[in-house]
Structure prediction request, 302 residues.
Amino acid sequence: MKAFVLRSYGSPDLLELTDLDEPVPGDDEVLVRVGATSVNPYDWHQMRGQPYVARLMPGGLGLRGPKLSILGCDVAGRVEAAGRNVTGFATGDEVFALLPQGGFAEYVSVPPSLLAPKPKNLSYEQAAAVPMAAITALLGVRDQGRLQPGQTVLVNGASGGVGTFAVQIARALGAEVTAVCSAANAELARAVGAGEVIDYTTTDFTRHEQRYDLLLDIAGRAHPAGAQTQGNLRRPGRSRRPVAAARRAYVRGARAGTAGLPAHGHDRHRRVHAQERQPGDPDRAHRGRQGNPGHRPELPLR
Ligand SMILES: NC(=O)c1ccc[n+]([C@@H]2O[C@H](COP(=O)([O-])OP(=O)(O)OC[C@H]3O[C@@H](n4cnc5c(N)ncnc54)[C@H](OP(=O)(O)O)[C@@H]3O)[C@@H](O)[C@H]2O)c1
Prediction:
């Protein structure tokens, strides 16, 4: 089969289109012929070997070279063969999946637990654009944010890969959504469900009086993680515990545990920094990264 193989850290030019043996599925695996894959920031980190500090972390990137030789986590395709212990999937089924690696190839062999049937109304290309960004949004909004019907949420970075899913999921959960993105994407944000849109190029939402039940900071621009000191928390030990989700989120009343997250949910590339606050806690000051560097906005949570 053809596959893009990565042998050393660097630019996309180093991805080498190579002939490899087709994987042979084990008894508990499914062989998928890849119809489409998509590229995520995760692949970029793996390819570049950046941030450098991740090379030193246990379970992180490889120290001297890439740990993954075939990148690609999001795939959609067709089941080519199923191992003899596999139930639920058969040759010819159309599937999509979030994988640890291997999508930039013609075939990939995967455990069936990672597969889901591809909705018939989605093309392979459309289905392959969903898994990582959508699961990231789901973890941030539902699992960490615990957004409830009737609550309000501000999504910073609402028009991007993760943000457009976050807005839709929040709406599906019955919440009111305020989107932050550029004016050029305001209509997109509204089309996926935002009731209000704030243009970050002209307006700093951290200076608004408005308070929200949940703030999902996908863009990671407004409230640098760590700006909130442990001393500001009533239960410091449970703050900023890294769990899988969007890059940064500040969550009121979120449970900071990881129970219920999928096994790959501890992936370092998809972290959320959930900060717990008790009802009645005063808002805490944060240093804004954009605009006046001396400005220390209040966190606009209710
Ligand atoms: N995509 C994934 O699967 C995934 C998974 C895990 C983690 N992440 C992480 O999540 C973050 C976002 O990823 P993404 O794929 O959603 O990125 P993206 O598609 O590039 O979207 C970025 C979003 O941020 C907005 N934005 C840019 N500058 C901003 C600012 N100064 N203030 C507020 N909003 C701003 C953009 O708005 P405009 O486009 O309108 O300017 C856009 O809505 C990245 O750090 C990424 O590493 C992504």
Observations:
- The CA atoms of residues 137 and 246 lie 6 Å apart.
